[in-house]
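Please decode residue identities from the backbone states below.
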């Protein structure tokens, strides 16, 4: 209601439904038309409310990555949404494996944005990389340890495509460096990643 008063929003119910939808779907791509349909509104209103929620730092969005600034601005790929605090998500959802994965991704986003001060993107072209920094540095996430090899493959594929020599994989409890053709992937446990600055993490590549 504070947001509604600040921006003189009369459709409070639409705002509430939209905020809940965005928090529940953190880490997912935004479909504006679908959101408008679900909350009983229209695209114009949804875009306005989305802008207000971003202005008060309740939600954040990440765009599709490209080394070209023009391509970043003009991409037709959907933006992904993240929330300022996992506590909002916990307040509206019960525990489940998919919910757990969302909370991990959101926690990683928060660390990258608030502690690393990074501008954050994602990349999707045959495969998907969860997070990409402005310089192209890729960051993947493993929620289920059975998916570790798949995520390592994705990172090496992306690094080969863009001629990059470093990548990062957030795991549950593994600390390791994988090397292939002079390209290195640092695998860090989530708990350790959440305690480290960007400089600290980069030092692992030299130490390894």
């Amino acid at each position: 209601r504070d947001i509604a008063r600040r921006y003189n929003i009369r459709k409070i119910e639409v705002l509430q439904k939209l905020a809940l939808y965005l928090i529940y779907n953190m880490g997912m791509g935004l479909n504006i038309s679908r959101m408008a349909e679900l909350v009983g509104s229209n695209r114009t209103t949804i875009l306005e409310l989305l802008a207000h929620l971003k202005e008060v730092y309740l939600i954040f969005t990440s765009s599709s990555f490209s080394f070209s600034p023009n391509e970043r601005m003009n991409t037709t790929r959907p933006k992904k949404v993240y929330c300022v605090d996992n506590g909002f998500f916990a307040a509206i959802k019960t525990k489940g494996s998919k919910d757990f994965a969302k909370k991990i991704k959101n926690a990683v986003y928060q660390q990258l944005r608030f502690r690393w001060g990074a501008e954050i993107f994602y990349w999707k072209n045959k495969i998907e990389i969860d997070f990409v920094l402005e310089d192209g540095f890729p960051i993947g996430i493993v929620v289920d340890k059975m998916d570790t090899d798949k995520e390592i493959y994705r990172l090496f594929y992306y690094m080969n495509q863009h001629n990059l020599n470093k990548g990062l994989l957030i795991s549950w409890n593994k600390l390791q460096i994988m090397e292939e053709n002079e390209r290195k992937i640092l695998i860090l446990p989530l708990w350790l990643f959440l305690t480290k600055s960007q400089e600290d993490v980069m030092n692992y590549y030299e130490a390894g």
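Observation: The mean pLDDT is 91.
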